[in-house]
TrEMBL record:
Keyword Transferase: yes
Tagged with keyword Ribonucleoprotein: no
EC supergroup of this enzyme: transferase
Assembly and binders: Homodimer.
Entry's family note: Belongs to the class-V pyridoxal-phosphate-dependent aminotransferase family. SerC subfamily.
NCBIfam families in UniProt: PRK05355.1 (NF003764), serC_1 (TIGR01364)
Protein name: Phosphoserine aminotransferase
Example of a GO MF term: pyridoxal phosphate binding
Chain positions recorded as pyridoxal 5'-phosphate binding sites: 102, 152, 177, 200, 242-243
Length: 365
């Protein structure tokens, strides 16, 4: 067996330890005589797996007691509809901050259900920066303010939790798409009304969506909201109104335990800072490559970069594959290259990438 360094934006690399444990438990989980995929979601074994996963996630993110953790399906894209269907309530408007592909998509979907006020947009920068909190123009009485705190495709990230109290609007719940950086850094959950993300970037397998929602936001769903997507229904059923994605929850749970063994989110953040610095410092010091994102909002998870001579792109990717470095091609809307370096990517993988960048530049520079 040989494993590569996998820089995929998602579904993405998982910790090898987790995969080995899952392999060992595949046929017989803890003496149950069956694997997790084969278990009833209502049996005591699976309920213990789901409860442990929730408890570990709560501990890792220090989720306050008045927030509910939901294990849902449909991915972040389905949440783009599920959120307005649940949160608009009596109000007709929601505010959106546009920072790139994902938030643009979110705003477009929300406009099918209510009025969207564009509170701020980074489009004029070519999506290479993010609008600072102080520039956000909230509407008079929005149901919520939506922000994507890490744009996976463009590679921009808000460096801090948005604190609407700083612009005198603490009453507006912040809804954050954290699909591609949840658990990569310490956050203050209490700054948000709702946090969501698909699991397949920085947690586990595709098919699981994590939603962390403040209790007072439950019970506002539109009559048109599918019952299986009504947060109150899901919360009251302990995420088991319908059959949840059991195997994905199990793997996510193993990842949470792995994160705890690594020292928790603060320890991961320190590693992620070191990994991102290694890569960005090399790119910035090179006259062969470039990253075009404003340094104050560069993503620690998704690092887009360009070869100054784009005619070498194919040779670069071929050589990378030969060196065991995969999935470096940039998103088609951006071009160039992108290295996604989530929690499961160790610094050794980033060092291998930087070595290859140097070798390739020396050969072709
Ligand atoms: C990947 C991603 C999505 C889309 O997730 P799906 O699981 O495909 O629905 C949405 N937002 C962000 C920030 C993402 O990284």
């Amino acid at each position: 067996m040989s494993r590569v360094w996998n820089f995929s934006a998602g579904p993405a690399a998982l910790p090898e330890e987790v995969l080995r444990q899952a392999a060992e438990e595949m046929l017989d989980w803890h003496g149950a005589g069956m694997g997790v995929m084969e278990m009833s979601h209502r049996g005591k074994e699976f309920i213990s797996i789901a409860e442990q996963a929730e408890a570990d996630l709560r501990e890792l993110l220090a989720v306050p007691a008045d927030y509910r953790v939901l294990f849902m399906q449909g991915g972040a894209i389905a949440e783009n509809a599920i959120i307005p269907l649940n949160l608009l309530g009596e109000r007709d408007t929601a505010d959106y901050v546009l920072t790139g592909s994902w938030s643009v998509k979110s705003a477009k979907e929300a406009a099918r259900y209510g009025k969207v006020n564009l509170a701020a947009s980074a489009e004029a920068s070519g999506w290479t920066s993010v609008p600072v909190l102080e520039s956000w123009q909230l509407s008079a009485d929005p149901a919520y303010l939506f922000v994507c705190t890490n744009e996976t495709i463009g590679g921009v990230e808000y460096a801090a939790d948005p604190d609407l109290a700083r612009i005198g609007r603490a009453e507006v719940p912040v809804v954050a798409d954290m699909s591609s950086h949840i658990l990569s850094r310490v956050i203050d959950v209490s700054r948000y009304g709702l946090i969501f993300g698909g699991a397949q970037k920085n947690i586990g397998p595709a098919g699981l969506t994590i939603v962390i929602v403040r209790e007072d936001l439950l019970g506002r769903a539109s009559p048109h909201c599918p019952t299986a997507f009504d947060y109150k229904t899901v919360a009251e059923a302990g995420s088991m109104y319908n059959t949840p994605p059991t195997y994905a929850i199990y793997i996510a749970g193993l990842v949470f335990q792995w994160l705890k063994r690594q020292g928790g989110v603060a320890a991961m953040e320190a590693r992620n800072i070191a990994k991102a610095r290694l890569l960005y410092d090399y790119l910035d010091g090179s006259d062969f490559y470039e990253n075009r994102i404003d340094p104050v909002c560069r993503s620690r998870m998704n690092v887009p970069f360009f070869l100054k001579n784009e005619a070498l792109n194919d040779a670069f990717l071929t050589g990378a594959r030969e060196a065991g470095l995969l999935q470096l091609k940039g998103h088609k809307s951006v071009g160039g290259m992108r290295a996604s370096i989530y929690n499961a990517m160790p610094i050794e993988g980033v060092a291998a990438l930087v070595d290859y960048l140097k070798t390739f530049a020396a050969r072709h520079g």
